[in-house]
């Protein structure tokens, strides 16, 4: 519990620093933040008081509105802002549009070196584009999947077996960052790095991070503690050896 309080307090410090740099006084800051993140002022007051933290989508909205890096705002990693010497074009994420002229009817999805642990967690301090993986365009459309929001990563570990095996290819939809009962997500926390687990709504208005392999214990998140875990995206497909 002490660790969670420290994470929240550190976030509050960075949030207030971002507000000050943007010329927004603390008085009435909750209302300004509410407009940025499209939530209630009461929710923002809890953020400012260290009672809870924004989820992935809200954290990104705040970072964008305050012109700071989301990794810095959430975890304190790296610089507060992108280097000023970079142009807007250079600051953009790697392109997610791939020309597959030789593969009519297929869409290319960015394949990353990142690994999502199905066990204790994976630290991915440096992620590179490994290549492009082709998916049928009709299949993506039928499942309401947009290429711009998709990444391919790899599973590492055995805790999600038999659903996901070690080394499996995982398709992650980064537009789906709200927790959903029973769905599998790629998530990131300060203490564990990147993990791939199932989220289950608990009876006490909290969440359970669950492994499909019964040999691994549940992790319980009470009340607003789900906001200390950044949801990268929902795992919508897996591929691997039988």
Automatic annotation (TrEMBL):
CDD domains: HTH_XRE, S24_LexA-like. GO terms for molecular function: DNA binding. Keywords: DNA-binding, Transcription, Transcription regulation. The keyword DNA-binding applies. It holds the Pfam family HTH_3. Residues 33-73 form the HTH cro/C1-type domain. PROSITE patterns: HTH_CROC1 (PS50943). The keyword DNA-binding applies. Signal peptide: none annotated. It comes from the Bacteria. InterPro entries: Cro/C1-type_HTH (IPR001387), Lambda_DNA-bd_dom_sf (IPR010982), LexA-like (IPR039418), LexA/Signal_pep-like_sf (IPR036286), Peptidase_S24_S26A/B/C (IPR015927). This is Helix-turn-helix domain-containing protein.
């Amino acid at each position: 519990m002490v660790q969670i309080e420290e994470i929240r307090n550190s976030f509050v410090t960075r949030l207030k620093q971002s507000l000050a740099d943007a010329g927004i006084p603390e008085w009435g800051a909750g209302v300004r933040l509410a407009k940025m993140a499209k939530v209630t002022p009461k929710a923002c007051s809890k953020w400012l008081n260290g009672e809870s933290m924004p989820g992935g989508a809200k954290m990104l909205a705040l970072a964008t509105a305050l012109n700071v890096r989301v990794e810095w705002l959430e975890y304190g990693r790296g610089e507060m802002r992108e280097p000023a010497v970079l142009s807007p074009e250079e600051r953009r994420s790697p392109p997610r549009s791939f020309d597959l002229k030789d593969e009519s009817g297929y869409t290319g999805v960015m394949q990353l070196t990142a690994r999502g642990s199905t066990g204790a967690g994976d630290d991915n301090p440096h992620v590179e584009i490994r290549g492009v993986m082709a998916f049928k365009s009709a299949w993506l459309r039928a499942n309401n999947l947009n290429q711009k929001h998709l990444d391919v990563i790899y599973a590492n570990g055995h805790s999600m077996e038999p659903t996901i095996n070690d080394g499996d290819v995982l398709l992650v939809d980064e537009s789906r960052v709200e927790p959903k009962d029973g769905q599998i997500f790629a998530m990131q926390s300060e203490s564990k790095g990147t993990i791939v687990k199932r989220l289950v709504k608990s009876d006490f208005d909290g969440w359970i991070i669950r492994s499909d392999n019964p040999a691994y214990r549940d992790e319980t998140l009470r009340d607003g503690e789900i906001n200390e875990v950044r949801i990268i995206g929902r795992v919508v497909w897996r591929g691997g050896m039988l």
